[in-house]
Design brief:
Beta Polymerase, domain 2; five-stranded mixed beta sheet; elongated
Length: about 150
């Protein structure tokens, strides 16, 4: 005895329409992670390059993937004066917009000791030397952070 044939799809339309109605195929997890990693690397290279161009001192990048919910990486840099820190923040914001990262939030740009730039997956902290040593973000979020 022959096994029964599978039931035919009774959805009206051509095979092309059926494929479109089914929606896009999910992207494999490995490809998704690779694309996310390359976008993160591009974002980090724009940030670090901009800070280097503006003569930022002691630039440190911390990997927070799996440790923090608000970002994957944190970049901390020092500027010697309010004007330098303000210029670094403005230049960084402009370069990120040009590189295709339009949603950049800047806090504290009006002449303070600490400017925070939220670029989505990377948060950038620009400090004067005294404020950087006082807040000690490297100690708080560094390698000693428990997983």
């Amino acid at each position: 005895m022959k096994p029964p044939l599978p039931a035919a799809d009774k959805t009206p339309g051509t095979p092309r329409k059926k494929t479109i109605a089914a929606g896009p195929k999910p992207v494999p997890r490995e490809r998704r992670k690779l694309a996310e990693r390359s976008a993160l690397e591009k974002l980090q290279s724009v940030i670090v390059g901009s800070l280097d161009d503006d003569k930022a001192e002691n630039v440190v990048t911390l990997d927070l993937a799996g440790k923090a919910m608000f970002c994957d990486r944190m970049v901390i840099a020092t500027g010697l004066a309010d004007r330098q820190i303000t210029a670094m923040a403005e230049h960084l914001s402009e370069k990120l917009h040009k590189a295709g990262f339009p949603r950049v939030q800047v806090e504290g740009k009006g002449g303070s000791d600490w400017v925070l730039i939220d670029a989505g997956d990377i948060v950038v902290h620009l400090f004067k030397p005294e404020a950087r040593s006082m807040y000690a973000l490297e100690k708080m979020w560094g390698a000693d952070l428990d997983d």
